[in-house]
Amino acid sequence: MRRRPPRPGRLQILSPLRILTQILTLQLLHYLIGTVLILFTALAAGKHFNADLVLDWRSLRADTTVGWTLGLCWVLDAGASVIFILLFIARSKLVLDFALTVHGIHLVVTSLYTGSVPTNVLWWGLQGVSAGVMVAGGLWACRWRELRPIEFGGGGGAKGRSGEEEVGKGRGRGRGRDGGGEYELVGRGDGDEGEGGSGNGSGSV
Known about the structure:
The protein is an all-alpha fold. The chain is 69% helix and 3% strand. It is elongated and about 55 Å long.
């Protein structure tokens, strides 16, 4: 028994090149927004900006103001990434996979940059909060987009139906409630009544 070939649209959505492009785009935008936020806060606080603030897990410390500020920046970055998920992914079934992939890549990049796997509890807790924000926000945004009503022709169909009904009323035609067929109302005109009256009069004479 031969299997039915998949739909062309499904192949386009799940193509490896398309998925890889989406992952790279989402990852780069995630780092871009995070770098901009950290750079802004560092300049506002009068601190020197360097790559350690972005990629070094040891910068996230619970006993310093810089550590908590970096954590806030990454949470805001996760909230901004929801917009990118809506724009580039737009499917609620893929939100969890892409969100975990982004944080998995960040774990690998951080480990390679520092030469060791993160052992900071605050860093791991931040990754969990960030992933939760991306998943929850991405699911809500994508489902909101998927459940939006689809409009065809800018609402012209309703106007067209109302126009047809008005024309049908003017001509005395319509369609049954069950949609089974059309009917036509034939009324007696003035000419018919006049003929009927003249006929009755001639018969009485």
